[in-house]
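Researcher: Here's a chain I'd like modeled. Treat it as a single chain, no partners, no ligands.
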Amino acid sequence: MIRLLGSGLISPPAVRLDGPRCYIRPPLPRDWREWADLRAESRAFLTPWEPTWPADALTRSSFTRRLRRQAQEWRDDEGYSFLAFDRPTDTMVGGLGLSNVRRGVAQMATLGYWAGRPYARRGYVSAATRLVLDFAFGQLGLHRVEAACLPTNEASRGLLEKVGFTHEGYARGYLRIDGTWRDHVLYAMLREEWRD
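Model: Modeled as a single isolated chain. Structure tokens:
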């Protein structure tokens, strides 16, 4: 269970959110090998939709730096990263998170996600997204969660619409994906629209 401590949260390793099909939890140092293997196996599948991978993207030291940054984001209430696992087998299937958390009058965050190639289009990411939305609107008390994807990414668009996001617009040169500034379609969900 997450504990609120003054102005911040957390002990990320203690957080686990369970659904019928999968569960999500923050990454731990022991996840490096499984994470690196899944990302390596899925590289050609993922790179058209992601920022350019640095040369050391899958190394243990890079993963350790990533974990330190993510732990700091949890402590500072700036971002919440999770890995997703198949519930019966404890097999890692992908990852997702909330970034760019804005408080004050905004109370919003940006959703991002990925699935390993063997687990894509099998319902894992939509199930994990529902868990993250419960966390965002419940535990974090956010009012709005935004997401963006490439216009050609039919799987991602379908996932967002299936979970209940509303298409809100089109942003030119929105994110640098695979080395190129790319247009994105924009989606969002408000707390009052969320129903699991």
